[in-house]
Amino acid sequence: MDLLAELLASDDAQLPARLPGGATVERLAPAVWQVTPANAWPGRPLIVSAGIHGDETAPVEVLCGIVSALCAGALAPRIPLLLVFGNLQALRAARRYIDDDLNRLFGGATVSASCEAPRAAALIAAIDRFCARNPAAVHLDLHSAIRDSRYACFAIAPRESEGPLGHEPRTLLAACGIEAVLLTGVKAPTFSARSARVHGCEAYTFELGRVRRLGGGVSGEFAAVDRALRALIAADPLPPSETAPHVFRVSRELIKQSDAFQMMLPPDAANFTGFAAGALIAEDGSQQWHAEPGELIVFPNPAVKPGLRAGLLIIADATSDT
Ligand SMILES: [Zn+2]
């Protein structure tokens, strides 16, 4: 079965209703499947999503590989599992989105009549159904970064609590090859933030490597997450990792006030670029932002409309130090 080809061809891709070993498969929406193991082992339910942005294809290929292994009996699921392929139309068009960024449609507000709106509603319904049956799930939403980054693989961790990131989450992130994690609140309209906010999931957006062409193959950057996902699904011990992720939290948001906004960074500046203390980061008319000691920037984007966020300033999270 070439699942990727089927997903690219239509919304009607089907998986067998029963996997080798007896797990059952239920289709909750187009390209959204719940897998229920014949005999569940202790282990947290898992939601894995990919392709929320249609041009981020390497994670889609990772997830297709896992689905194929499940269907072939090469990977035996021992925890309840929800497999989600996100923006199918954008995936077919090899675009980030068609009308609306799907990863901004999970904030709860009424959504405009875009091509992505019904897909967001379908994904929400599937997540709600899965989480009602399977509380305390982990949700890993797999993306690939659209700009260079000092850390090739990093995670955004929307959390209700302000406390330090515990040992268990850090072990999971390290096993997934995540080198840095940014702790944020749960208000963002992203897929992972909604799972944390509405269902109390331990949820992450993973930004893995760089966007590349569909069919370009899965590179080494994705090997760790592929291995870790298979271990989680099989309720096996996580592969050991020698490094722990650096933990950051948000210090300030750069909100663009007017068209006079200027950022003192090249437009392609890498995520996690640091500054000398006191350096001018941005200015907007008479307002200036100077770097506090240890501040770094992620998601710099001076081209946003006035009123929107042009970047996030972050600092190392001292409370999460090992
Ligand atoms: Zn993305």
UniProtKB/TrEMBL annotation:
It is an enzyme of class 3 (hydrolase). Gene3D superfamilies: Zn peptidases. Zn(2+) binds at residues 53, 56, 143. Pathway: Amino-acid degradation; L-arginine degradation via AST pathway; L-glutamate and succinate from L-arginine: step 5/5. Pfam families: AstE_AspA_cat (PF24827), AstE_AspA_hybrid (PF04952). Its cofactor is Zn(2+). It catalyses: N-succinyl-L-glutamate + H2O = L-glutamate + succinate. InterPro entries: AspA/AstE_fam, AstE_AspA_cat, Aste_AspA_hybrid_dom, SuccinylGlu_desuccinylase. Binds 1 zinc ion per subunit. Its EC number is 3.5.1.96. Residues 245-314 form the AstE/AspA barrel-sandwich hybrid domain. GO terms for molecular function: succinylglutamate desuccinylase activity. The active site is at residue 207. Residues 43-218 form the Succinylglutamate desuccinylase/Aspartoacylase catalytic domain. Keywords: Arginine metabolism, Hydrolase, Metal-binding, Zinc. HAMAP family: Arg_catab_AstE (MF_00767). Belongs to the AspA/AstE family. Succinylglutamate desuccinylase subfamily. Transforms N(2)-succinylglutamate into succinate and glutamate. This is Succinylglutamate desuccinylase. The lineage of its organism: Bacteria, Pseudomonadati, Pseudomonadota, Betaproteobacteria, Rhodocyclales. The gene is astE.
